[in-house]
Amino acid sequence: MILFELRCANDHHFEGWFKDNIGYDAQSAAGEIACPVCASTQVGKAIMAPRLNKATGQALDAQGAAREVRRLLSDLRQKVEENCDYVGEKFPDEARKIHYGDTEARPIYGEASAEEARDLEDEGIAVVSVPWVREN
User: Fold this and answer.
1) Who contacts 95 (Cβ-Cβ below 8 Å, separation ≥6)?
2) pLDDT tens digits, residue range 40-53?
């Protein structure tokens, strides 16, 4: 997995995890990456510094990397909660309403089964599954 700092056309910054550079390029070319703040799909990579262990200058070990991933996922959760509407189990229905123009476009989050997420993707609705870390 690789983490990229991303920036949309409206200059919102956010992070995204991808399998590799090729995965990012494919999703970007297909317009599948959307800003969590404004939903713009005009997204590109922002300049970012590599994450190093400041004490030694060496790359993080497995335990340090796991802590860093947890911290990043916690930050992501906070940003999603601050900038998106929680729609709970109604997520698939709300995503469809937004996609088909039946309701105002806005960033949302909630729950969907793997099958529901696949169905949304099959309809051309961009969804992202995010590991939701507990706050404690």
Assistant:
1) 108, 112, 120, 125, 127
2) 999 988 766 555 55
